[in-house]
Amino acid sequence: MKKEDVLNLMNAVPPGLVEEAGRDRPARRPLSGLARTALTAACLCLALLGTAFAAANPEAVTALVERLTVRIFPSQTDPGYSVSGGPMTKYPLSAFSPALTAASEGRDGPVVSLMFDTWDEVRAFLGEDIPCVWPEAWDTGWFQVLLFHTGSEALWAVDVYSVDISRQAEVYAEVRTELWTGENASGGLGGLNGSRITQLPSYSMPNGAVAELVQVTDPETVYSDGTSTGFRPQRCSGYFMRDGILYTVTAFSPVAPQEDAESQLKTVLDTFP
Q1: Residue 239 burial (10 A CB sphere; 0-12, 13-18, 19+)
Q2: How many domains does the chain have?
Q3: Whole-model pTM over 0.85
């Protein structure tokens, strides 16, 4: 199967973005020296207690990992779902590499699209201070890096996208800069008429992140002569956050015999460092 055919069958929609206005905060009175000392001692005590608690209660600590919430919109004609979560990290512009900064400053429009052959090239282009990660042994010949700008404003988002045909999977990572006016993570997907959308149990990844899983089963394709494909294409997506970066990983089964997309997805999630 050609790469273009797989991309069309996935019918993926890039995650949406939520822009939020800032709120003024009341000024705070400075602490006295005695109060500041007491506060420092209290923080140290809490830190020591937290370390002891983490060692004795690893299951409870798992609950503190960055988590996302899934909301499904069931509809026969216009199904879909949204994914939302806590604040995304706004990385300073100085954290990105000089090469990325130069590409942003030399842009011809609001969006810059660049192609790379390997993940090592992408990592160097992002900059060593951007902790974006990728599945190990990702078998693909290309990566796409997108730089987003608003009008004449400077860089506010850097997204990375790639497809591994051998695994029938794709990964989309969203990084936000200090100039982003939003706050919380947000994503989602729309289905076809008659698609069935199901939220699956959360999946704890080996690297400590927790992925929220959503399965989309599309209707059979019926041709004009009344015949059909005889199978329902399936996509299973996992959403998780790490270091304030939002990741969307999707495994798809576009052709018969249909494999278990959920198992495919978990196999990819297990290879994130």
Answers
A1: buried
A2: 1
A3: no
